Amino acid sequence: MCIRDRSKKGVAASIEMQEKQNEDKRAAGEKQKQNQLMSEAQRVQQGEAYEFNLRENRQTAELDRTAALLGAARQAEAQAASDRTGAMTGMLGSLAGIAGGL
Fold it and tell me: CA 100, CA 79: separation in Å to the nearest integer?
């Protein structure tokens, strides 16, 4: 009976050790799963940040282009006003010269 008791204890200890190993493997698998989920979340977050920055850069470039076009239009308007003033001055000078020659 003593041998059988020892044999049962040995089997029980072996089962207990196997259950412990299974639990350790389960925990390691869960940790690996959590690490993969975290890595995926970081990858997605980096992708979203990249897309945001890309969109932001495009919008900034469009604003810069619009501002440059507005500046060019204002400069052209000022040049046209200057040309108009010059033309009026020239015309009045010519009229004055004609009137003075009469």
Answer: 31
